[in-house]
Write the structure tokens for this entry.
Amino acid sequence: MGALYVSPPPIPTLTPMATTIPEDVTTNVSSQPPDNIDYNELKTLIRTHTTPAAPGSSHSDTSQPVVIPGQADEALSSFEARFARELGAQHARVDLFVRSKADEFRRRLSDYEQKLNRLIARGGPECGGIMTARRRERLARLETRVLRCTDDIRNLDRFIQAQRIGFQKILKKYRKWTGS
């Protein structure tokens, strides 16, 4: 008799409900990588505190306190303090990232230097200047690692330049929108 064909069990599928992400989770996740300056957040902070509300909106100019000439503007000083704290926190975060990467590169390069010195010491004059295939492979691997580290350092430099430009632009916007 012929063999019986048994079909495989059906593959379970996920229901649409199981694959959706709750809205409150997606709104709390920042679109910026954690090590970059959050330029959009700072720009929004400046605009919301320096742009007058549109007429007819729930935040019209009549709801804003009137600044008495000669007196300090409490809302402006509060905003400036908040902006300075946020800018300082973002600068500290970027600085911590850069310092940790620089320390990592220092350790890697120090390790590569030690390995190179050991390879040089093992191939002293007693070897007659002949380099074995194994030693050549180790030197080639070491060279590849050093070149990769060099590329990483260049990438860090580009990151630093991008962050510097971001801070300069946000401070320029701050001066433009606040007039200070």
About this structure: Residues 58 and 64 are 11 Å apart (CA to CA). The radius of gyration is 30 Å. The longest helix spans residues 74-122. Confidence is low (pLDDT under 50) at residues 1-32, 59-63.
